[in-house]
Amino acid sequence: MNSLHFMGTGLYIPPKVVTNDDLSKIVDTSDEWIYPRTGIKRRHINEGLTNSEMAARACKQALENSHVNPDELCCLIMATFSPDTFSPANACTVLHMLDLPEHILSFDINGACAGFLMALTVARGILAQCPGKKALVVASEFCSDFTDWTDRSTCVLFGDGAAAAVISLDNFSPFYFTGGTGKGDEAIQVKASPRAGDDFHVIRMTGSKVFRFAVTVLQQAITELLGRAGLTADDVDHIICHQANFRIIKHVYEKMGIDPAKFYINIEEYGNTSGASSAIALAEMNEKGLLKRGDKIMMICFGAGLVYEGILFEW
Ligand code: COA
Predict the structure, then answer these.
(1) pLDDT tier at 69 (50, 70, 90 boundaries)?
(2) pLDDT tens digits, residue range 32-67?
(3) DSSP 8-class letter at 230
(4) Is residue 301 annotated as part of the catalytic site, yes or no?
(5) In this structure, which topology does domain 3-170 adopt according to CATH?
(6) What residue owns the CA closest to ligand 1's atom 26?
(7) What's domain 175-314's superfamily in CATH?
(8) pLDDT digits (tens, 9 = 90+) for 167-217
C-alpha cells in the first residue's frame, strides 16, 4: 500500500529538432546506421534555456494540470545528471523561478537515466511523513550541453527535455520497487572536473557494455516486480522502459514473450533524454489520454553507475 497518485503531469520539449540527416553533416554517420541500430530518427535540442528553465516550464504545467495549490507541496525533487550548477541544487533554482513557498524542501537527485524513478521513490518516503501534502517531481536533462559533437558514437544518441508530475500518496493501492547497482561504473562517465582526467564535461560511453547490462536488468526487474505483485505480464497494462535503444526493449519483449503493444516507445522522436526519458514517456501518455484509473504500470530504467530501478503501481 502507500502507492503514488499522479495528480497532474507536465512536459517541456525543446522546439528545435535535429534529424539523423542533420547529424550526418557534422560527423561521419547516417540515418542508415543510426535508425536500425537505435530506433532514433530525431532528437530535440535545447537552445536558449538553462536546464532549470526547462524544468520550471514542465513543473508549471504539472502544477496547472493538477490544480494543486503550491502551499500544499512539501518537496520539489529534480532528477538530473546535467545541472546548470552543482550547487545550489537546481530544484532550489526552479523553486525560486516559480516563486513557490519557502516551506518546500528542494533538492536534486543524480540517478542518471534512472533518476526520475529514484525521485518518485524518495518523494513517496517524504510524503509518508507529511500527511495530506503533495510532492513536485521533475526530471530535466540538457544532454546536448554535455555532448562531444565530434564523437559519433555518443552524439547521435542523446536529446534534451523535461517532464514533471505532482504526486500524492494513495493509501489504497499497492506499490512495488526493485533496484540495484551493477559493476561497470566506467561504462558511462561524465567527468565533472579536469582533475578527473581528460574529456571532462562530456558523455563517454562503452555502448556494448551498457547494452548487455540493460537487457539483463530489464528482464530481472520485470520478473522481480511481477513476482512481488503476484502478477503475470498479461496483467500489466503498460510497461515504460528507459528509452535508450529500441533494440534493447525489443530484445526484452522477445526473450520474455511479452506482448510488444504493452511497451510504450517514443525513442524515435526524442532519442535518449537520460533521466527525463521515462518521465517524458509517462507525461506524454497521460497527455494523449492513454492512461486509465487503475491501469497497472511498470516503469524500469537503467543508467550510469551502472544502476537500475523498477516500480510497479496503479494509475
Ligand atoms: N555512425 C556510424 N558508425 C558508427 C557510429 C555512428 N553514429 N557510432 C559508432 N559507429 C561505428 C563504430 O566506430 C564501430 O566501427 P568499427 O567496427 O569500424 O570500429 C561500429 O560502428 C560498431 O560500433 P559499436 O559501438 O560496436 O556499435 P553497437 O552495435 O554496439 O551500437 C550503440 C552502438 C551505442 C547503439 C549500442 O551499443 C547501444 O545502444 N548501447 C546501449 C547504450 C545505452 O543504452 N546507453 C544509455 C545509457 S543510459
Answers:
(1) very high
(2) 999 999 999 999 999 999 999 999 999 999 999 999
(3) T
(4) no
(5) Peroxisomal Thiolase; Chain A, domain 1 (3.40.47)
(6) 208
(7) Thiolase/Chalcone synthase (3.40.47.10)
(8) 999 989 999 999 999 999 899 999 998 888 888 899 999 999 999 999 999
Residue ranges, CATH 3.40.47.10, the chain? 3-170, 175-314
Cα distance between residue 117 and residue 177, in whole Å: 10
How many CA atoms does the CB half-sphere of 70 hold within 13 Å? 15
- Is 0.85 surpassed by the pTM of this model? yes
Query: 22: which 3 cell numbers?
Result: 542533420
Residue of 23, 153, 186, 300 best suited for mutating to test ligand 1, as the one with most atoms within 8 Å of CB: 153
The C-alpha cell that represents 168 in the structure block:
500524492
What the block records as the C-alpha cell of 239 is 510497461
Question: Among the options 74, 75, 92, 113, which is catalytic?
Answer: 113
242 given a catalytic annotation = yes
Distance (Å, whole) CA 159 – CA 221: 26
CB 2 within 8 A of CB 60: no
